[in-house]
């Protein structure tokens, strides 16, 4: 028995990796299709976009990279779908350089591909700008001066969607898809309290717990946390994307982690007890 | 003068932005200085990339450790700059193709590896050695199960219970950490502005 | 002739497997992928900085300067072109960064660094004091009795939790007596917070792996829809 627990404590981590791999792959081939309900922060996110009248202009800041795509890409697409359905005009910027091609892809997929929206009139990609909080503060003074051209090289002031847009006071709200720093926290600190504009955020699950105080204080009007948040939001918008499809694998993966924690501690306490008995 | 002038520049720049918050009359000048900062920060990034090139080139020259792989690094760097600046960055360009088929999968996979390591850590390092650790462990388990559909299948009120944990006890501690960190950030910012903190200048 | 999309999928799959090979042990395939990633990422950022900052915010406005008008009609020229002319200042600050590579003039790069650090310090002071300090304290001033038992209990617990956690971080006095009791309660709230963060971190990491598995079995091998 002692040998068994000793071997268990010193288990090669590659065996653990195999368990994790199997746990995530199997549900893809044998889906469980477990139903789930929508939580309050996701409902608030959905409602804050739903409350905007058609024709409103929203700033969509896609601040993420391919490393967080599984969590944030489904949210991004679902947000575009909800806004396009409501004929909300979308002005997109990126504070992460790696966000620009992803935003172009998302617009081509959803805005153009599904809703036949027109670039420059219904949506625009102003591109990436370096400077983090400096860019945010600069936009509070003048968005066209901060982004003199869009991603395609057109003069910002010539675009129909940008007519009448000088700074945040000309926008209905900000939707931020955030993969880290700079992201939601910086938008809250530099823009929400200073320029008094609504902000709803979709973020990675790693960051989500630290944004609950902002949700409670009203600095955030909605929060999507991780792949589960994306899945719930997809459910509200009425689509089945990677978020929803990934939930089965997520469920099994969490059970496997729980099993590892329990077995690891059983092995630890058993060894500790045996050592005490020997003494 | 080598250390005094930067302190003066630092103070003037920071004080100006603080003043801009209280006096909207400074807004036109603030907008100009904002643009300066955006441009200067972009140059800082280029400096970083130049340094990557310089360091790795020296390793290749003296055939240091892993010098063959450094050739791959430098070649990749030069290729992307040539493709991006020479041929554009839009969808349909070679630059975009390399981003979607090389940078995207590699970056995504590097982060995906963390899943395996967190599982390994959960098995080998997560030990309930005290009552406080037990509280941490129990909360982790409740949140992990409550945040996935299987938790709702086991107990229909699991998600609202998990939301309560996030909205009350978890929030309380996070708020305290936030307030403490804000006080620290403000005091550090003030120390930098008045010149007490000069580590950004480096050595002599 | 396979399409660029098909070639791209196979290249992406190959690089994905190269990175995953690290799970077995460090090997030349992983090293190749790692170095390739660092190189092309650095090149990517440089190109984006050029197209999104250098050209629209600096170079194109500077190129609009008409030196003939400026020298022939200085007052009129300056009135119309001051916004482009003034960009010489950030351009100079940017160039000063590169003095770092010289022995005798490296100290000049501190000027550029000081400008950026000063701006960020000023912005951070305002952001943290308004966003994190004042508004968060304000949000915690909750009524301890709301007429409803559950929301009253939540408000009491929230207030107690924030105060106890703040007491824990007060190190100017030894944690004994009432202060020690407060700190102990604070540790409990902090442990709950760290446990919740760990749970969410596990969720996040697993999601990233699910995304890659979808790519391998869905987009590349086409074994799932």
Order of helices and strands of chain C: HHHHHHHH
Name the overall outline of chain A.
elongated
Mean pLDDT of chain A: 93
Number of domains of chain C: 2
CA-atom Rg of chain C in angstroms? 29 Å
CATH C-level of the largest domain in chain A:
Alpha Beta
The count of strands of chain A amounts to 6
Supply the CATH superfamily name of the largest domain in chain A: MTH777-like
Q: Which structural category fits the helices and strands of chain C? A: mainly alpha
Strand content of chain A: 5-15%
Shape of chain C: extended
- Gap from first CA to last CA of chain A: 17 Å
Rg calc of chain A? 23 Å
Number of strands of chain C: 0
Give the assembly state of these chains.
heterotrimer
The greatest inter-chain interface is formed by:
B-C, 121 and 112 residues
Helix count of chain A equals 12
Runs of chain C in which pLDDT lies below 50 for 5 or more consecutive residues are none
State which percent range the strand residues of chain C make up.
under 5%
- Across the major sheet of chain A, the strand order is 3-2-1-4-5-6
Structure description:
The complex is a heterotrimer of chains A (279), B (204) and C (225). Chain A has 279 residues and is α/β, with parallel strands linked by helices. Chain A folds into 2 domains: 2-30 and 249-278; 40-242, MTH777-like (Rossmann fold, 3-Layer(aba) Sandwich). Helices cover 54% and strands 13% of the residues of chain A. Chain A has helices spanning 2-9, 13-29, 40-50, 69-85, 99-112, 133-141, 143-146, 184-195, 208-217, 226-237, 242-245, 247-278, and strands spanning 57-63, 89-94, 123-128, 173-178, 198-203, 222-225. In chain A, strands 3-2-1-4-5-6 form a 6-stranded parallel beta sheet, sandwiched between helices. In chain A, strand 1 (57-63), helix 4 (69-85) and strand 2 form a beta-alpha-beta unit. The longest helix of chain A has 32 residues, at 247-278. By secondary structure, chain B is mainly alpha-helical. Among the domains of chain B are: 1-87, no CATH class; 89-124. In chain B, helix 2 crosses helix 3 (67-87), helix 3 (67-87) crosses helix 4 (94-124) and helix 5 packs across helix 7. Chain B is extended and about 60 Å long. Chain C has 225 residues and is mainly alpha-helical. Chain C has 2 domains: 1-86, no CATH class; 147-225, no CATH class. Helix content of chain C is 78%, strand content 0%. Chain C contains 8 helices and no strands. Chain C has helices at 4-20, 28-63, 67-72, 74-85, 88-96, 109-139, 149-168, 177-220. Classes of the chains: A alpha/beta (279), B mainly alpha (204), C mainly alpha (225). Chains in contact: A-B, A-C, B-C.
